[in-house]
Design a protein that fits this description.
The chain folds into 2 domains: 1-31, no CATH class; 34-209, 3-Layer(aba) Sandwich (Beta-carbonic Anhydrase, Chain A), CATH 3.40.1050. The chain is 51% helix and 14% strand. It is built from 10 helices and 5 strands; from the N terminus they run ααβαβαβαααααββα. The chain has a 5-stranded mixed beta sheet with strand order 2-1-3-4-5. The two termini are 33 Å apart.
Length: 217
């Protein structure tokens, strides 16, 4: 495990390596920020947005929290969204969860972890809303995986219902929201096919994603 001195040394080596590959890299990066993507993901240290997407610094604007939750009263997340949409003019918002999410597992099993329980109540709401469908999933790991997927599907809907995105769509801004999930076991991202570029499209995609028999992987 790296200590703080190693982290600083790693940064120095990385900066030198980047400058050797592209002498104008940092000057170009400092001059402007024009990412195409807003990434709303989990805080899990194993799911770093830039690395798993192969995107360079400056190409993705990132917001992360425990279990990649979008809450309409969370001014942190909403402020990130508003800045990304209105100022940076991103074209795509990606809500990305991951299999093996500890926050989702805690919500699924009703674990008590402390203050974070209040935040995970939002994931418990997802669990309860889909209790009937979840009951038909066989096996503890399969249920965990499915709740990870359902949580992403719900959060995509929440993004589409924010005033930030509704106002952007109403003024004709071209922007879409997508739901992806990452598998730590193989390093691959999977599209949950719940993307939309309009309020009506979001509602249709949500309904379709929950239809029995629709394959998620």
């Amino acid at each position: 495990m790296a200590d703080l001195r190693e982290v600083l040394e790693n940064n120095r080596l990385w900066a030198e390596r980047m400058r050797a590959q592209d002498s104008a890299f940092f000057e170009r990066l400092a001059s402007i920020q024009t990412p195409r993507f807003l990434w709303i993901g989990c805080s899990d240290s194993r799911v770093p947005a830039n690395q798993i997407t192969g995107l360079e610094p400056g190409e993705v604007f990132v917001h992360r929290n425990v279990a990649n939750v979008v809450v309409h009263t969370d001014l942190n997340c909403l402020s990130v969204m508003q800045f990304a949409v209105d100022v940076l003019r991103v074209r795509d918002i990606i809500v990305c969860g991951h299999y093996g999410c500890g926050g989702v597992q805690a919500a699924l099993e009703g674990q008590r972890l402390g203050l974070v329980d209040n935040w995970l109540r939002h994931v418990e709401d997802v669990r309860d809303a889909h209790a009937e469908a979840m009951a038909g999933v066989k096996g503890a790991e399969a249920r965990w995986d499915r709740l990870c997927e359902l949580n992403v599907i719900e959060q995509v809907l929440h993004v589409s219902q924010t005033t930030v995105l509704r106002e952007a769509w109403s003024r004709g801004q071209e922007i879409a929201v997508h739901g992806w999930i990452y598998a730590i076991r193989d390093g691959r991202l999977r599209d949950l096919h719940v993307g939309a570029d309009s309020p009506a499209g979001a509602a249709r995609a949500y309904t379709e994603a929950l239809r029995p028999g629709v394959a998620q992987r």
